[in-house]
Amino acid sequence: MADQKTNHDTRERILDVAELLFMANGYEGTSMRVITTGAEVNLAAVNYHFGSKEALLCEVFRRRLSWLNRERLHALDLLEAEAAGAPLKPSQILEAFFGTLLRIGEDSSLGGMTFLRLLGRTLTQPAEFIRTFFASEYAEVIERYKQALFSALPDVPKAELVWRLHFMLGAMSYAIAGTDVLRVLTGCELGDWAGEGAADSVDDRALARRLAQRLMPFLLGGLRAPLPSALQSLTSSPASPSEGDTEPQTPNHLQEKQP
């Protein structure tokens, strides 16, 4: 029993250190030597528990994504049960999918902002092996949420909804990856723009909350945006704007009714 606990503790320590180092330095910039030094273990221990650096990165993600995927499916199950066969509101779907992810940032036991930044940075430039891994891990969840969006917005072409989901995933990945570009654009720290002082004085829970407050309305706005004029004729929505109109109108099926 003691040996099992020791092995578990060693394994978790390696994962914790690897998660932090992969986030800070990237996959290519993090050597096994640096990981073993940080975790205070030898290379044999890493090989025993994980087998390779690739397998170690996959396991760093798996221990967090297993929880995330369960929570996303559970949230969708509850919403669909409450709806009793009626389509969900798009805002409910986005909150269940993206909101669940953002809540990780407020909980250090789930990886907190360290894991969110690692996930975002890895998704923006995934290696082939991790792309394959993500495709497998996310398959069931993505399919369920796609179908929920198709049901919620039946008059919007499915290809358009897939594109919008793609855009939302990209925005999410870029947002959680970090704020380096924001600093370049503004010359300010994230905390300054949040009205909370310097970034090093703002804890991760506050940053995660502010990120969710800014990002969720942006994602919903993108989902509700007017269809491109070339696609409006493919839906059952009212006729396209006349030649004198300068702005496309949002079709009724993209206007979410408030309760």
Strand and helix layout:
Layout: H1 2-25, H2 32-39, H3 43-49, H4 53-83, H5 90-103, H6 112-124, H7 128-152, H8 158-177, H9 180-186, H10 190-193, H11 204-224, H12 229-232
Task: Explain this structure.
This is TetR/AcrR family transcriptional regulator. Pfam families: TetR_C_30, TetR_N. It comes from Candidatus Accumulibacter meliphilus. Keywords: DNA-binding, Repressor, Transcription, Transcription regulation. This protein has helices spanning 2-25, 32-39, 43-49, 53-83, 90-103, 112-124, 128-152, 158-177, 180-186, 190-193, 204-224, 229-232. The chain is an all-alpha fold and 259 residues long. The chain is globular. The chain folds into two domains: 1-51, Arc Repressor Mutant, subunit A (Orthogonal Bundle); 62-226, Orthogonal Bundle (Tetracycline Repressor, domain 2), CATH 1.10.357.10.
